[in-house]
Specification:
It comes from Rhizobium azibense. The protein is an alpha/beta fold. It is built from three helices and five strands, in the order βββαββαα. Strands 1, 2, 3, 4 and 5 form a five-stranded mixed beta sheet that branches.
């Protein structure tokens, strides 16, 4: 199931503290929210058309998707300068994910078969988007570890440059991981949906 994800560059605020001998600390702050778009239909064809017409779009594209995950990274780093060297004192990486899902508004009166198909499809859309959010949270932790491991520099300006480079590489890697996940999911979509439908139809006794 293809999905749209929107990324924003990871920006770190540069600040300096007094020279204190304290261990480096880190914190990943992850938040998640949900929003919905309404669709209507009394047949599989109508629902598919509504998803194509009302679904969210990705940045830089007019294509509609059955679901989406918007991802925003941010953060800040604090530096300590001592004995002519500057090092990371603390780092905080933030990642907010907004999962956008479809909501079938006029389900009442639909056939049991169509409801079963929708339940299988909507659960797969949600699983897919939750995985996008999980990938973002995991990458935020990776970025945090890499920033804390950066070697001390001769100045805090040079330290800031290293932090910026590390965060940019982390975002690029994150984008590649998300794109790879979408490619794999698209290839396996048909077989995955058939398994879900067979399972749901089997449990309902049809």
């Amino acid at each position: 199931m293809p999905s749209a994800s929107r990324y924003m560059r990871f920006v770190l605020a540069f600040s300096m503290t007094v020279a204190l001998c304290i261990p480096a600390s880190a914190q990943v702050v992850a938040t998640k929210s949900y929003s919905y778009f309404d669709i209507r239909g009394k047949s599989a064809g109508e629902l598919d058309e509504e998803l194509s017409r009302r679904g969210p779009t990705a940045s830089g594209s007019s294509a509609r998707h059955p679901g989406a995950t918007k991802i925003r990274f941010g953060g800040e780093a604090t530096y300590v300068q001592s004995n002519g060297r500057c090092r990371i004192s603390s780092a905080k990486v933030t990642v907010h994910t907004q999962i956008i899902l479809p909501r079938w508004r006029n389900r009442n009166g639909a056939s049991k078969q169509l409801s079963t198909i929708w339940d299988a499809l909507s659960s797969d859309i949600k699983r897919h988007e939750e995985r996008h959010a999980e990938i973002a949270r995991t990458q935020a932790r990776v970025m945090e570890r890499r920033i804390l491991a950066l070697p001390a520099q001769h100045s805090c300006g040079a330290m800031q440059e290293l932090v910026t480079e590390a965060s940019n590489r982390g975002i690029e890697e994150h984008d590649r991981l998300q794109a790879r996940f979408d490619r794999i999911e698209a290839v396996n979509f048909q077989s995955r949906m058939m398994r879900l439908l067979n399972k749901r139809l089997g449990s309902s006794g049809r």
